[in-house]
Design goal:
Radius of gyration: 19 Å
Shape: flat
Largest sheet: none
Strand content: under 5%
Order of helices and strands: H
Length: about 70
């Protein structure tokens, strides 16, 4: 039995977006896809920030002096 079979596969981005990349050569569809990818990434980062803030709040409440 291979123990690695139970691990989830790493998430691969649908499209790679490079910040600062020239946009003039991209089509409207490519620009829309770029916006969608960046919007999804922003939401992913915001979700991680919310999780970290909740964890920090829980830790602060646990160690708060009465």
């Amino acid at each position: 039995m291979n123990w690695d079979d139970d691990r989830p596969s790493p998430v691969k981005p649908a499209a790679t977006v490079t910040v600062g990349e020239p946009l003039a050569t991209l089509s409207l569809g490519e620009l829309e896809a770029r916006i969608a990818a960046l919007t999804a990434e922003i939401e992913r980062v915001r979700a991680e920030m919310r999780a970290k803030q909740a964890h920090e709040a829980a830790a602060s409440a646990l160690f708060k002096k009465s």
